[in-house]
Every structure is written in structure tokens, then in C-alpha cells.
């Protein structure tokens, strides 16, 4: 099965980053073709990543091969929403409460554009992205179904 894991942060470090990476690895061990959508600009250097498509990169016309992990990083204009303020190389970091509605909507739209663009070929999607209220974000104009861990 082709699966998508949507994670709003990186695939290394601590906490949910490690959790997301471990979920992707477990699905690959089960033989699934896994697409991870995240913000990790360095994911192509991770040993468990088989294929990397960076911001603005062209998605291949076919889904990932069985038992592989493809990482896709959307272009989010370098603005990384976080719960706890920290430094992330290559990003302007803002806590979600400090973001404007326009910034939140823009981030959601840019991420969703990458998620919804074919060819991701997935029948299942596990989302692990920032959420305050509603489907994604407060008063989101474009709501997308999600499952949270």
C-alpha cells in the first residue's frame, strides 16, 4: 500500500520528529511505499530515506516503490510554525499563537498544495501537523481531513 505521513516538522532531533521517522521506518519494514511530507531540508542525507524531493522539486510520475521512503518537502517560504520557540537552521521560526491568520492560511495552503498534488497515490494518510482548532488552524478557509496521533 502507498501511505502518506504528513509531519509538520523535521525527521531528526527529539519528540514527534523521532516518532514520525520511526512510523515511516515501521511502514517500510511492512513493505509499504511511504511518502513523508515534512519540513526537513536535510532529509535527503538521512540513511533511512530512499528518495528526496525538496522544495520546488518535481514529483516523479509514479508512486514510491514498495518498501521505500520518499520524503517530500513543500515550499513554505522558510516560515516554520512551532509550539515551543527554538532555533531551526534555514527557517524563520514563529510560535503558532504569534502567527497571523494570513501566515497560518499561507502555510496550510502551501503544504496542502503539495499534499493534494498528484502523483502521491495514497489511500491512507496519517497527519501530524500543527493544529489549534478545527480541521487545521483557526478559521481555516481550506479544511483538509486529518488524523492525529
Produce the secondary structure layout.
Elements: E1 2-7, H1 16-29, E2 33-37, E3 51-53, E4 68-72, E5 79-82, E6 92-95, H2 101-116, E7 124-128
Parallel strand pairs: 1-2, 1-7, 2-4, 3-4, 5-6
How would you characterize the overall build of this protein?
By secondary structure, the chain is an alpha/beta fold. The chain has one domain. Helix content is 20%, strand content 21%. The protein contains 2 helices and 7 strands. It has helices spanning 16-29, 101-116; strands at residues 2-7, 33-37, 51-53, 68-72, 79-82, 92-95, 124-128. Strand 1 (2-7), helix 1 (16-29) and strand 2 form a beta-alpha-beta unit. It is globular, with a radius of gyration of 14 Å. The two termini are 20 Å apart.
Keywords, separated by commas or semicolons:
alpha/beta, five-stranded parallel sheet, disordered C terminus
Amino acid at each position: 500500500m502507498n501511505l502518506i505521513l504528513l509531519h509538520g516538522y523535521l525527521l531528526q532531533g527529539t519528540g514527534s520528529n523521532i516518532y514520525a521517522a520511526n512510523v515511516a521506518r515501521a511502514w517500510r519494514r511492512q513493505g509499504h511505499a511511504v511518502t513523508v511530507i515534512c519540513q526537513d531540508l536535510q532529509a535527503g542525507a538521512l540513511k533511512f530515506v530512499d528518495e528526496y524531493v525538496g522544495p520546488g522539486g518535481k514529483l516523479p510520475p509514479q508512486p514510491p516503490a514498495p518498501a521505500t521512503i520518499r520524503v517530500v518537502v513543500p515550499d513554505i517560504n522558510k516560515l516554520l510554525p512551532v509550539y515551543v520557540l527554538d532555533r531551526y537552521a534555514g527557517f524563520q521560526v514563529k510560535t503558532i499563537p504569534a502567527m497571523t491568520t494570513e501566515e497560518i492560511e499561507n502555510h496550510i495552503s502551501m503544504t496542502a498544495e503539495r499534499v493534494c498534488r498528484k502523483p502521491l497515490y495514497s489511500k491512507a494518510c496519517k497527519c501530524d501537523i500543527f493544529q489549534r482548532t478545527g480541521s487545521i488552524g483557526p478559521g481555516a478557509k481550506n479544511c483538509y481531513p486529518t488524523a492525529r496521533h
